[in-house]
């Protein structure tokens, strides 16, 4: 569309819009000739029939916005209402359009929309919310058909002009390309705001149970946006992150899962700033529930594997410790240690617990920390790299508090002793580095863990030695 055409479109006067409404015979189900042959009662009956069919899926569908279906609405003329009435009508229509979103692929939904199009001209006055509500069905012919009657006024939607003319579905790659154009990313806040408003509009329960398609599309759209690494920049991340945060904080489980999917994609394709990582980790760990603990832990582990995570949020980890039985935390961690490489996470996890152990004063909390520490310092699932990280953490804490009079708790020192003897060669390499740094710290460590020099047998092939050295270097960065 040329610049002149855009200006003329913006200058369109209200009277011309009224005339356009009066002449409009747009239809989702019929061609122009068929639609022109139908009367208001015909369209009303079509809508009522659709409502009756949708009651099979949602028994309350006809009770949500009763005012839209009253007999008196047959003679309603939208162009004659004042601003306040129109605002109330828009709110009611937005709620109904949102409630219909889960059923767009059903013919009954299109019958209901047919009445709303005829009587309330939603394709003209509510085009944007129609587009956003039914965008999860963008690849369907039904969506293309709906596009053919929508009347957009905002210039952002001009990319749809050709699809509106032909009534064609919109491929995902088109949505992604347009969103990336000129770094505008305009669809991100539009789509995200629709989902947030939907929760306020139709309630948590409705969204949780019925709007899975919307949250699945949100996740897929964001993942596709991040798929091309060359297009991932600070501007895109800044656009996405607020809505990832909203999703992770949401009480709506499908929305929360979508946020985790997007966060996982983000950390896979780019390096995030430490403060951004810290915020994501807090949101994932702070309000953990049994229903999503597995997915949240998987996401946190992925973040630790792909990003430079120097610490986990202490408050969140201590909350996990308090809820360890409710979340079945230790068995889950044992299984993860046996099945996957979770070194980066476990080293940070132990590091956080050790920090709390040396600083916490609450006896009940200390008991929980000791329980989780000793149960996760599991020789069966532990690998050499994890042992190296643990040794470095312990030595660092001893160095940070040289005046500490109390030795390590006996139960913990026994576990550490067993780990040192099991991974004696790895410990000997760590010990050699720390001896250069501060021999007294190493001596203190050996004394508190009751380890004698003869119990350490440094004997390891060259290739394995190189691997442990490299791991030790990484832990000290």
TrEMBL record:
The species is Ditylenchus destructor
What is the stated purpose of this protein? Involved in nucleolar processing of pre-18S ribosomal RNA.
Q: Which residues form the U3 small nucleolar RNA-associated protein 10 N-terminal domain?
A: 236-353
What are the recorded Gene Ontology BP terms? Answer: maturation of SSU-rRNA from tricistronic rRNA transcript (SSU-rRNA, 5.8S rRNA, LSU-rRNA); positive regulation of transcription by RNA polymerase I
One Pfam family of this protein, by short name? U3snoRNP10
Name recorded for this polypeptide: HEAT repeat-containing protein 1
The residues that cross the membrane are none
The family classification in the record reads: Belongs to the HEATR1/UTP10 family.
Q: What are this entry's molecular-function GO terms?
A: snoRNA binding
